[in-house]
Amino acid sequence: QMPLVGEELADFLRHHDITCMACSPTLLSSMTSDVPSLRTLLVGGEACPHNLVVRWSKPGRQILNTYGPTEATVTATMGALTPDRPVTIGAPLP
């Protein structure tokens, strides 16, 4: 089975009414059309460009930037991303 990228991924997400997705900003940017069912996006693994936050933000959708050293944990910090604020890695998780 081939990995889904770009519009093939967007079509899959729409077809299955996926509401939450964790991915890299690069994978998210490969989708050129919106996926209305997505309510929560967790991005990580690389820096998230602010223009991607602007592009994917919409009322009712939460975008979270996650960061963590892969050797020790999956996510050590998390912060909400909004179009009106700079992208940060957020605050440490408890």
What this model shows, in words?
With 94 residues, the chain is of the alpha/beta class. Helix content is 23%, strand content 22%. It has three helices and five strands. The protein has helices at residues 6-15, 25-29, 50-56; strands at 20-23, 40-43, 62-67, 77-81, 91-92. It has a five-stranded mixed β-sheet. α2 links the parallel β1 and β2 (40-43). It is globular.
Main sheet attributes: strand count, strand direction, barrel closure: 5 strands, mixed
CATH topology: Rossmann fold
The SS-based structural class is alpha/beta
- Outline, from the CA principal axes? globular
Number of helical elements:
3
Look at the structure and give the CATH class. Alpha Beta
H/E topology pattern = HEHEHEEE
Low-confidence parts, pLDDT < 50 over ≥5 residues?
none
Strand content: 15-25%
Cα radius of gyration in angstroms: 13 Å
Task: Report the count of strand segments.
Answer: 5
**Strand order, sheet with most strands:** 1-2-3-4-5
Set out the fold topology.
Blueprint: H1 6-15, E1 20-23, H2 25-29, E2 40-43, H3 50-56, E3 62-67, E4 77-81, E5 91-92
Provide the descriptors you would attach to this structure in a database record:
five-stranded mixed beta sheet; 3 helices; 5 strands; 94 residues; Rossmann fold; 23% helix; alpha/beta
